[in-house]
Amino acid sequence: MSAAKTTKAALEATLSKGQLAAADLTALLRARNPTIWISTREENRVEKFIVEAAAAAAYKVLFWDCASGISDIAGRQPTVTNASGNARPLEINGKPGKDIKDSGEALDAVRWYSERTGKDAERIVWVFRDLPIWIEGTIGATPMRALRNLSKYLPGVPRPQAQAIIVLSTVTKVPNDIAGHATVLDWPLPDRSEITKVIDAALNSLPEFEKKEDGTPDETKPIRSLAFTKESRELAIDAAVGLTEEEAGACYAKSLVQSRTVDPKLVMGEKKRVISREKVLEWHDPIKGGLDAVGGLDNLKAWLKVRETAYSPAAREYGLPAPKGAVLVGISGCGKSLTAKAVATAWQCPLLRLDLGALKAKFVGDSEENIRKAFKVIETIDRCVVWIDEIEKAMAGASSGASDGGVSADALGVVLNWMQERTSNAFVIATANSVENLPPELLRKGRFDEIFFVGLPNETERKGVLKASLKSNGRGDLKIDYQRVVEATEGFTGAEIAELVPTSLYVAFADGAREPSTQDLVNAAANVNPLSKTKAEAVAELVKWGNENARSATLNIEPAQLRANSGSRELDL
């Protein structure tokens, strides 16, 4: 690696996402890009970065909006320097800058400044806050033409009077008429380092101690030091990543006002609102018990517990990369979807379900745009578990030339690119019940960390599933002959075993509201025709694929084998 690349990487490691975007903007200004379109919902925060970026490129900054006219960042009447070096209020054709509230006049001001020479010359970045509204439709034809003309003219203006236009907008899509002239920057939301400053500011707003009746601090009653522990502080920061600076600050302030502590759950609730607003992902509430609610799958759970450590502060300092995710292939009803839900609970992060099939649209390009929007939301949320259920159905036809106009293939391309290039802390769990329609390029290393096969539960796992189901139905303390039930459920999927408990509860309630017994569970099992029998050929084919191509999610060792391999001696009597 060259020294230049090493220096760049070291620099990027020390800068926040906002600072990196500002550095990119400085480079664009120095390169004399005439029109820069910045997509953001954080006008106030981004404007501060713009001022820093413009100063680094030796530009002054002026702002325009339809309410305040032309002003400085504080909303004051701007000044200009005349040939004698004296400052005077900005006027265009005798009209004060604060009174220039028409977009066309404001664009004329840019042209007027670009033509000044000598001591009158000033390098200015013009930030237009409301311009997208004024360049739409027939009524916006004149300001749109002025903007296009300026975009072609400004790169050739001499350096001393260089001008640049920045358009602030809440959308990324640039009007077609200006798209060829504008450089688009999608300004990132605050990262952990910026959110850390927000939470520290919220903490510093608290008094250090309670006050006595005479108004003096009571050092026996601390306030600030009890607002959060080191662990809850880290969780609160993680929970706020994906919110705007204003949203994060409001959440912290609300929590402090209500309980004098920072509650990560309250911040997580704000994220749920963000997901609902975007309408491209489904938010799933966590299930109780975490990974303990999943019976069996010991290999998979052990692997997940190791990956969880990668999100700790110590792991970040160590330089440990965030895990990408896992593909769970296996027989329907054996715990794949339940595992996805349980991981989010165990890791205390949001669970987002991505339904690729539901994002498909009838117009060309709309499906990929919907998927990109979903991925953008995921990147915004940062640390979360993304659950792509039955991915083989959404990807059906991507590799076999299905008659869908290439929609599946295009969608696969978007998914593959995101899986390969993403930098967020999202952990993706993709589940599949079959492998015929899974594109091989989706399964290669680099996009997922591991492929697990989830087969039929063994004896130990059947017992674990039964215990977990009894506990989730409020019957964890029942005395059950587990061995009898385990023997009666050979060849059952986890879902089929779990369903025995509510079935038994119905029978027991009808029989005098008693507690269910072992016999009730065995009788319920006798009435089940398991999937392993009804779909024997398909199950056998899937098991064969899993044994050859994936890592087993379970130990696949029965208790008798464990005893045989334990090293205990057999006496010759």
Principal-axes geometry comes out as elongated
* Total individual domains: 4
> What's the story with the biggest beta sheet?
7 strands, mixed
Q: How many β-strand runs?
A: 19
- CATH class bucket of the largest domain: Alpha Beta
Mean pLDDT over the full residue set: 83
Task: Outline the fold blueprint.
Blueprint: H1 3-14, H2 17-30, E1 35-39, H3 43-56, E2 60-65, E3 69-71, E4 79-81, E5 87-89, E6 91-92, E7 95-96, H4 103-114, E8 124-128, H5 131-134, H6 141-153, E9 163-169, H7 176-179, E10 182-186, H8 192-204, E11 209-211, E12 217-222, H9 230-240, H10 245-259, H11 264-278, E13 282-284, H12 298-308, H13 313-318, E14 325-330, H14 336-347, E15 351-353, H15 366-381, E16 385-388, H16 391-394, H17 407-421, E17 427-432, E18 450-454, H18 459-472, H19 482-488, H20 494-498, H21 500-510, H22 518-526, H23 531-534, H24 536-549, E19 551-552, H25 559-564
Helix pairs in contact: 2-3, 4-6, 8-9, 8-10, 9-11, 15-17, 18-19, 19-22, 21-22
Walk me through what this model shows.
The protein is of the alpha/beta class and 573 residues long. It folds into 4 domains: 15-186, Rossmann fold; 192-211 and 221-278; 284-453, P-loop containing nucleotide triphosphate hydrolases (Rossmann fold, 3-Layer(aba) Sandwich); 459-564, Helicase, Ruva Protein, domain 3, CATH 1.10.8. Helices cover 46% and strands 14% of the residues. The protein contains 25 helices and 19 strands. It has a 7-stranded mixed sheet, sandwiched between helices. Strands 3-2-8-9-1-10 form a 6-stranded mixed sheet, sandwiched between helices. Strands 4-5 form a two-stranded antiparallel sheet. Helix 8 (192-204) packs across helix 9 (230-240) and helix 18 packs across helix 19. The model is unreliable at 557-573 (pLDDT under 50).
